[in-house]
Every structure is written in C-alpha cells, then in structure tokens.
Design brief:
Number of domains: 1
Number of strands: 8
Oligomer: single chain
Largest sheet: 8 strands, parallel, barrel
Distance between the termini: 26 Å
Number of helices: 11
CATH class: Alpha Beta
Strand order of the largest sheet: 1-2-3-4-5-6-7-8
C-alpha cells in the first residue's frame, strides 16, 4: 500500500485540514495552537499551502517540519510548478524525503501575485501532470528512502476556471491520475450536487482513485464576499443564501448558520459514502471542531 492510501485508510471517511504558513512568529504560535486543538480529531493528515510562485516555500517547509516533529499528524505539503526548475523541485523533494514526509499534493499553481503576463513556458513543468510524473520518477530513482511519495492532485467540482469544457477538464484530470496520482482533493464547493456529479463523471472517465471533498464553513459575511471575488469564484446555492439572509450584521448568528449548513453538507456526504472530507480552515479551529463534534468525528 502506498503512502497516500495508507494515510487515507486510517479512518473512513478520512478527515483532514488545510493550513497556510503564517508570516510572523505570533501567527506561527497561534496556528500551532489551532493545529494542536484539531489534533484531537485524529485527522488522517493536514496539508500546508504553498504561496503563488513559491513565495512561501521556506515558511511551508518550516511548518511541515514542525508538524512532523511536534504532532502525530502526517503533513502533506503543497508543491507547485510555478517559478521552478527541475533541480529546485528535486531539491525540495529530497529535503522532504529526508525529513520523513510521505505525501505531496502536486499542483500547477497560481502565477506570482500581480504578474498578469506570467510566462509558464519558463517553468520546467507546464502542468500538474508533469509534476506528478517527475515525482514518480524521483520515487523510482530511489530519491525517497522508503516506499516513495504518495501523490495527491486537485479536482474541481464546480469546474476549472481556465477550462470551460467539462469533458476536456476530466481528460486533464485523468491525465494526472494516469501520470501517477493516488488521490484527488477537491476545491471547496457549497452544493453537494456538484460534488456527486463530479464523482460520477470521474467514475465514467475511469478515474478510480479516492476523491476527498473540500469543505469550507462560511463563518463571516466578509469571508463570504472575499470568496466570491476570488478568480476561481464560488457558487453559492440559493439554499445557503437563504440561511444567511438577514444575519450578515449579526456575526454570531451568521457563524452559527454557516456552521449548521456545513454540518448538514458533511452529513450528506458521509451518508453517500464520501472517501474523505478536507476542511479549509483559514487557520482557525472553532468551526471545524464544532462540525466534528456534531458529526461525532472527533
């Protein structure tokens, strides 16, 4: 059994969390308290993001090492293609292998912030599938002292923002799996019908690896507006908007409504045999812990 499937098999469905590396010592200490709080949920793994263009590479590496050394949770660092050459990627993989990291989330990645004309042709890898293939070759060459890295990739239940053709989108995803990906972790979504349709289309395309559902509880009106403004967008179903209507000016009621909606969303996913649930935490623990408590996941 490879490393990715090992961490996913520890519980069914798997439960995992995503964090981003803070840029200050105080932020780092606050985040680590959040991680320790969430450790009580016995997560299958936690993932650590990688800034656009590799801008948080060192911070990501530091946080991953600290999680390895001071918790019992397997960390899964993100790794992107942007602004990297083969020797840099090989060096990063070597560092993670020597530290004991078992799994990598391989992503194409966003261009550096503000660079509207970024030339991906300068990167060694143009697509996530190319990076997946390189990691597999690294494994075969003995770069990892144990069984090699397991590899996760991203999926898009609402559709990839750069690929309007949904058939072509699945072809690209199938290419990543064929290149060696062990599991798919989806971007966040708020309508389970999008996820169920995505999962069924993956099955029809011959994609048989585990698919983990990405969930983000909406806990503030400001956060909701921010998500809607992101390039990838966020589709808010009427059912969610109806729940949140009239409570935007009441932070406590808004948070309670958002947590309840996410709890119901997760319960429906569990009832329909989801492989795993991945919480986008925004480096906070309150909402995720409450959802885990309500669903007896802790």
């Amino acid at each position: 059994m490879n490393q990715s499937l090992r961490i996913l098999s520890q519980r069914s469905p798997s439960i995992s969390f995503e964090f981003f590396p803070p840029k200050s010592d105080k932020g780092a200490e606050n985040l680590f308290q959040v991680i320790k709080d969430l450790e009580s949920c016995r997560p299958s793994f936690v993932s650590v993001t990688y800034g656009a263009g590799g801008t948080t590479r060192d911070l990501t590496h530091q946080l991953v090492l600290r999680i390895l050394e001071q918790t019992t949770i397997p960390p899964v660092p993100h790794l992107t293609c942007v602004s990297h050459q083969e020797n840099e990627i090989r060096g990063i993989l070597t560092q993670y292998a020597e530290a004991g990291v078992d799994t990598i989330l391989a992503l194409r990645g966003d261009p550096p912030s503000g660079d509207l004309h970024y030339d991906r042709g300068r990167d060694a890898f143009q697509y996530a599938g190319d990076l997946v293939r390189f990691i597999r070759e690294f494994n075969r060459s003995g770069g990892h002292p144990r069984q090699g890295f397991g590899i996760g990739v991203a999926g898009f239940p609402e559709g990839h923002p750069e690929t309007q053709n949904r058939i072509l989108e699945l072809d690209y995803l199938r290419a990543k799996v064929d290149a060696g990906a062990d599991y798919i972790c989806t971007q966040l979504f708020f309508d389970n019908h999008d996820f169920f349709d995505f999962r069924e289309r993956c099955d029809l395309a011959g994609i048989k690896v585990p698919i983990i559902a990405g969930i983000m509880p909406m806990t503030t009106a400001k956060g909701m507006k921010r998500m809607a403004e992101l390039a990838a967008g966020a589709r808010y179903p009427a059912r969610l908007l109806k729940r949140l209507k009239g409570v935007a000016d009441d932070p406590a009621r808004f948070e309670a409504a958002g947590i309840q909606y996410a709890t119901e969303q997760c319960q429906e996913l569990i009832d329909n045999e989801v492989d795993g649930i991945h919480f986008y935490t925004l480096n906070k623990s309150t909402a995720t812990l409450e959802i885990a408590r309500r669903l007896n996941l802790a």
